[in-house]
Amino acid sequence: MAKATKKQVKVEKKQVKTIGVLTSGGDAPGMNAAIRAVVRTALANGLKVKGIRRGYTGLLEEDIVDMNAKSVADIIQRGGTVLYTARCPEMMTADGQDKAADVCKKHGIDGLVVIGGDGSFQGARQLAARGINTVGVPGTIDLDIACTEYTIGFDTAVNTAMEAIDKVRDTSTSHERCSIIEVMGRRAGYIALWCGIANGAEDILTVERYDNDEQKIIDNIKAKRKIGKTHHIIINAEGIGDSHNMAKRIEAATGMETRATVIGHIQRGGSPTCKDRVYASSMGAKAVDILTQGGSNRVVAYRHGEFVDFDIEEALAMKKTLDPYMCDMAKKLSR
Ligand code: ADP
Ligand code: F6P
């Protein structure tokens, strides 16, 4: 009997009452669906919800608003994040992290959902170490979070980029040109690889695989011209960059008119795809479930067809790279 009481007290101590939610790092289509799911799942569990605007910057500045079911009405279809986002250097300092935990405590936030990338999860980890129950939700168009096969925004971003590349291809073919199209991804080549396959690119350059041998590309362009190809599409990952100069060098070496197009932030905006809306909703809801079950210092992930969660440290220590099979396949398909 005494044992049961002790156990009950322990469970009560962990029970969160107020959940805070913030978005941090680069925005990603689907973040709004995740926010909506956090708010409505928390409310369904009888919890209070506070929205923290502008990521960790807003947390440190106490830019915190009460949220109800209506606060998240009419947002599931919108790109960006209604909570705004920011990059906050102060959160990388111990003083900033102490202050952020104090602000959470002051506002009664005992559970926090952080929607962002690996950097944002580092901040979440620091808050968990300071007694705030935290759960990370992977939100980035880059797909560069090792513990998960899905990140919020990637699907929309690759579809946006793919459509843009199709358009460039039309004009490239008409003018019999070479086009270098630069896509986002910071140091990761997932957007480049997926678009390269989806758009039937002749070359895909990623930080993970590119050997800096430009001569090989030049030889490839010449060889493809010989067999009658009218255009040559090169998808260049942001991590390699230098697309405009590369275009000049390639034009000089091949004699083929070459243009560079940097797609840029267009691929980070826009209405989320169905997949991004549904997966982001599932991840937001799961984050709240983890908190209500007493979990902290966790990251939601999608692996092998299931939504799962990992310890943040464990998640941050994981490594992933481009699937070699996909890379080799892309090469074979670009004949
Ligand atoms: P992402 O979350 O998409 O990886 P960033 O790397 O820009 O994006 O990180 C977003 C924010 O997370 C940073 O501006 C900072 O406030 C916080 N952050 C990043 N790294 C750390 C860290 N090592 N410790 C604490 N907070 C961090
Ligand atoms: O992390 C998302 C991302 O769009 C990267 O692909 C890119 O390198 C970076 O953010 C760009 O950030 P900013 O919004 O500061 O230009």
Throw out a few tags for this protein.
335 residues; alpha/beta; Rossmann fold; four-stranded parallel beta sheet; 12 helices; 11 strands; 18% strand; disordered N terminus; binds 6-O-phosphono-beta-D-fructofuranose
Overview of this protein structure:
With 335 residues, the chain is of the alpha/beta class. The chain has 2 domains: 2-153 and 272-317, Rossmann fold (3-Layer(aba) Sandwich); 156-268, Rossmann fold, CATH 3.40.50.460. It contains 12 helices and 11 strands. It has helices at residues 2-14, 31-44, 55-60, 94-106, 118-129, 154-174, 190-198, 214-226, 243-254, 274-292, 312-317, 324-333, and strands at residues 18-23, 48-52, 64-67, 111-116, 133-138, 178-183, 203-205, 232-237, 258-262, 298-303, 306-311. Strands 3-2-1-4-5-10-11 form a 7-stranded mixed β-sheet, sandwiched between helices. A 4-stranded parallel β-sheet has the order 7-8-6-9, with helices on both faces. Strand 7, helix 8 (214-226) and strand 8 (232-237) form a beta-alpha-beta unit. The longest helix is centred in the middle third of the chain and has 21 residues, at 154-174. The chain is elongated, with a radius of gyration of 23 Å. The termini are far apart. The structure holds adenosine-5'-diphosphate and 6-O-phosphono-beta-D-fructofuranose (F6P). Adenosine-5'-diphosphate binds next to helix 5. Adenosine-5'-diphosphate binds at residues 24-26, 56, 87-88, 91-92, 116-120, 122-123, 126, 140.
Brief digest:
The chain is an alpha/beta fold and 335 residues long. It has helices spanning 2-14, 31-44, 55-60, 94-106, 118-129, 154-174, 190-198, 214-226, 243-254, 274-292, 312-317, 324-333, and strands at residues 18-23, 48-52, 64-67, 111-116, 133-138, 178-183, 203-205, 232-237, 258-262, 298-303, 306-311.
